[in-house]
Amino acid sequence: MRVLLAEDDLVLGKLIQYMLRKQGILTDWVQSGDVAYKQALENEYDIVILDWMMPVETGISVCRRLRMAGYQPAILLLTARDAVEDRVTGLDVGADDYLVKPFEKMELLARLRALMRRTQNKLQQDIIQLGQFTLNRTLEMLLEDAVEINLSPREFQLLDLLVQNKGSVVPREVIFDRVWGRESEVGLNCIDFYIKSLRKKMNLSKEKPLIHTVRGVGYKLEE
User: Fold this and answer.
1) Through-space distance between the first and last CA atoms of the chain, rounded to whole angstroms
2) 0.70 exceeded by the pTM?
3) What is the 3-state secondary structure (H, E, C) of 164-188?
4) Which residues contact 177 (CB under 8 A, 6 or more apart)?
5) By mean pLDDT, which of 49-58, 87-96, 137-146, 172-181 is the weakest?
6) Cα dihedral angle (116, 122, 124, 130), rounded to 10 degrees?
């Protein structure tokens, strides 16, 4: 686990960094919000711990800006504010958890472990392996042996829908509703066009079709 700690209190910051490193957690410590924002984007962290009140930029502001920039790792807010409104504010700007000062060492470590488990589960769900193909739902990318296959947004949506229902037949009406929407002026035949395009781009053969046609019903993804 690698953690970025943003805490302007010298005593507390040093104490938390020492405590985490003692547990084998790689911990970088900064003392202002603007530095925390820059460091979070320039390095790879599993969890970012942000103190609410920091010089230059608050933890709330940093959290909001990171999420607006598409930042995915878990964020834990530390603060002396314990009002319900403050907790709601922290969660609404994108924090995954909220810990009120003063806190016990064991509680902080337990919160970090829980966040790590959640992050790992999310990554497992968002990155799906299909033989030689890798579907990254977060970045909306399809890779074949680490090489990106250029899909249009509709093609990706269609493939993602089939992947999420792997092993089950997805009716044409459901595909149309989820990918194009009921108010769309195009016809159901557009599905066949996009399936054909997907198969071509993924170089699928009759021997290894991956995307199966269920005549009169819809399509099914099955390895």
Assistant:
1) 34
2) no
3) HCCCCCEEHHHHHHHHCCCCCCCCC
4) none
5) 87-96
6) -170
Residues 6+ apart with CB under 8 A from 15: none
Q: Which amino acid is at 57?
A: E
The CA distance from 220 to 126, in Å, is: 20
User: Hey, what are 164's tokens?
Assistant: 């999420």
Q: How far is CA 146 from CA 56, 127, 129, 132, 136, in A?
A: 41, 13, 11, 9, 11
Query: What residue type is 54 in one-letter code?
Result: M
| Per-residue pLDDT tens digits for 127-163 | 888 888 998 887 788 999 888 999 999 999 999 999 9
How many alpha carbons fall within 13 Å on the CB side of residue 201?
18
Burial of 161 (0-12, 13-18, 19+ CB in 10 A): middle
Helix 172-179 vs helix 189-201: angle between axes, to the nearest 10 degrees? 80
Cβ burial of 170 (10 Å; 0-12, 13-18, 19+) is buried
Cβ–Cβ under 8 Å, residues 195 and 158: yes
Among 69, 14, 59, 52, CA closest to 33: 59
